[in-house]
Design goal:
alpha+beta; single chain; ten-stranded mixed sheet; 2 domains; 10 strands
Length: 424
């Protein structure tokens, strides 16, 4: 039967030539439309590693930072029943562009710096005392226990916490509590815990992170305070209470609270400020439009092709061909045309990837937001799996459209009498 179908396609090569060219273009179109969507979906489904909901930042204004002012707020939070816990950090965590700096870390080694195996990291400084509980506030997950990481009571200025990726980069394992690391100044720090990787920005990839512990007196500028509301707390009611009762009480002199801002709002504001929100919408819109155009083009082409062969169907039915055989032949023809056209389009797609690379939705975002070197541990950053998955999705999609375009009209035509099909 396949041989007969191929002969039939060849005999109608003039009529099929334009359809074949359209399928090649549609294959290219679909592949390029699905590529950025695949990257966005992969990044969007990365586990955040923490819980940003119900976390708030206290906004305040002052001529300069006053440690005592923030400590008074931290003390006050102990007496507010709606607040679960809080933390103070030198500069805030992402999404503030000034919220982190990069550094180099290594395992303590007596060799010259040029021979030490230094590893890059983002670093943040956090206060460590009984009032400032970062991990409990954001609910970062302990790699060892799978539960919320509990800040060590003995954390001092020589302590540090590593993300999973940072621990693996340095030691090749996450079982590193109690071991030592050093910075570029050869200051040594004891590892107090390892937390799951954090996706601090929407669609960002994980990056190696180190959190250095600092005593209160070590801070001189940029402190920020965050707190977490209890799960049972009504957020709107608490905001009203905060504005009416808490803000006036702790606003005095040059230090005054100006309001609250949720961590989710911080992320949204960041995305809008750097045009990331519009960039994602543009990618999604263009890809959706491309898929819609390909759907209409391929579907209508096969629909018209099938309808134009009503007489052929009538002849086949009058010669005793069953409905299933007729429908199967048209579906098989559609699949053969799509498959051959898709194969022909592959060299063009491969050339495009060689010249332009895969879609990278964050390519034009400031470099401090994302890794400049793609991390090969992510599926969408590995060339062969990325290419194979996008190609498979594009092929299945265009095949489904072609089958629908051949199947639906052929079913309708075979339901009519052979004489009617011949007459039309």
């Amino acid at each position: 039967m396949i041989t007969k179908i191929i002969h039939q396609i060849w005999n109608e090569r003039k009529q099929n030539a334009w359809l074949f060219l359209e399928l090649i273009v549609a294959s290219l179109f679909l592949w390029l439309a699905i590529d950025p969507l695949f990257t966005l979906v992969c990044r969007g489904n990365l586990p955040k590693g923490y819980t940003p909901e119900k976390v708030y930042k206290v906004k305040y204004d002052a001529y300069n930072t006053e440690k005592e002012f923030l400590n008074q707020l931290a003390d006050a939070f102990d007496n507010i029943p709606e607040i679960e816990c809080s933390f103070i950090a030198q500069c805030e965590l992402q999404p503030n562009p000034g919220g982190y700096s990069s550094t180099m870390l290594a395992i303590p080694d007596d060799r010259p710096d040029s021979l030490v195996d230094w590893k890059a990291a983002r670093f943040y400084n956090i206060k460590t005392n009984d009032k400032s509980r970062l991990f409990e506030t954001i609910r970062a997950i302990d790699v060892k226990t799978g539960k919320v990481l509990q800040q060590a009571d003995y954390a001092g200025s020589d302590g540090a916490y590593l993300s999973r990726r940072q621990a693996m980069s340095l030691f090749g394992t996450t079982d590193v509590v109690g071991k030592k690391i050093m910075n570029v100044h050869r200051e040594e720090f004891t590892i107090l815990g390892v937390f799951e990787d954090l996706q601090l920005l929407n669609y960002d990839e994980y990056t190696p992170i180190v959190l250095f512990c600092n005593n209160v007196d070590n801070f001189t500028f940029g402190e920020e305070i965050y707190f977490r509301l209890k799960d049972s707390t009504d957020e709107d009611a608490f905001k009203k209470k905060f504005e009416e009762e808490i803000m006036p009480k702790y606003s005095h002199g040059v230090y005054h609270i100006t309001g609250l801002e949720s961590y989710m709002e911080r992320i949204e504001k960041h995305d809008k400020q750097y045009n990331i929100t519009n960039k994602y919408r543009l990618y999604a819109g263009l890809s959706g439009f491309a898929l819609f155009c390909a759907f209409l083009g391929v579907l209508s082409a096969f629909w018209i092709r099938t309808n134009s062969r009503r007489r052929d169907i009538g002849i086949m039915r009058s010669m005793g061909a069953t409905k299933g055989r007729v429908i199967g032949q048209f579906v098989a023809e559609a699949m053969i045309l799509v498959t051959v056209a898709f194969i022909v389009s592959m060299p063009f797609i491969a050339h495009y990837i060689y010249v332009e690379g895969f879609a990278e939705p964050l390519a034009k975002v400031p470099s401090w937001i994302h890794n400049e070197t793609p991390d090969q541990s992510y599926l969408h950053n590995r060339a062969l799996p990325h290419f194979a998955i996008v190609t498979a999705v594009a092929y299945l999609l265009i095949s489904a459209i072609a089958i629908a375009g051949a199947l639906l009209p052929s079913i309708r035509i075979t339901r009519s009498l052979p004489a009617d099909a011949l007459r039309e």
